[in-house]
Amino acid sequence: MATAPMLFETNRLVLREFTPDDAKGLFDLNLAPEVQKFTGDLPFNSVDEARSFINAYTHYQDYGFGRWAVLSKDNNEFIGWCGLKYIPEYNDIDLGYRILKKFWGQGMATEASKGCLKYGFQQLKMNKIVGRSHVENLASIKVMAKTGMWFEKAMDYDIGPTLQYTISKEKFTS
Q: Where are the transmembrane segments (predicted)?
């Protein structure tokens, strides 16, 4: 079993880099139409394809951060992912999250997102982080608002009509 050190924890969650053991969780997450609806991503065809994605994921090495596995602190169960991603086309850092449907409505995405923002500002010394959501993804928009992010602009993005939220280090309160 591959292990990665914990990056940080919140009240209920542990966040760490992906390991090949997360492949089943990622496969299940990307298989759910409700989760994929606003992402523009295609589901993995197999657990092996998800594992190949993890093995080829270089964001940690390239930038020193990335999307991280979100696990239950109680039982180490895979809940989804949350994390920061450098978007070269916009030269910005994007907060993203995806949570398995069975955990929706429990505040997991908000809790993980606040943890990622805190980590980004305090540990990684970032100055600004953005979040983007399809205009119809009301749950994701609520998560961004609950983290303290504020609406910055409407834009066209790869997922279609998109709202961009932002937060700066100065405005963030953990």
A: none
Give me the numbers of helices (H) and strands (E) for the chain, helices first please: 6, 8
Among candidates 111, 113, 90, 59, which has minimal Cα distance to 164?
90
Q: What per-residue confidence (pLDDT) applies to 42?
A: 82
Residues 85, 110, 20, CA angle at the centre, nearest 5°? 50
CATH code at 155?
Answer: 3.40.630.30
CA 34 from chain centre, in angstroms, equals 16
> For every residue of 86-124, which 3-state class applies, written as one string?
EECCCCEEEEEEEECHHHCCCCHHHHHHHHHHHHHHHHC
Can you give the pLDDT at residue 1? 55
Burial grade of 46 (CB within 10 A; 0-12, 13-18, 19 or more): exposed
pTM: 0.94
Q: How far apart are the first and last CA of the chain?
A: 33
pLDDT confidence of residue 38: 79
Strand, coil or helix: 170: coil
Q: Which of 66, 80, 63, 102 is nearest to 27 (CA)?
A: 80
Number of domains in the chain: 1
| 84/19 Cα distance (integer angstroms) | 17
Residues of the chain with pLDDT under 70: 1-2
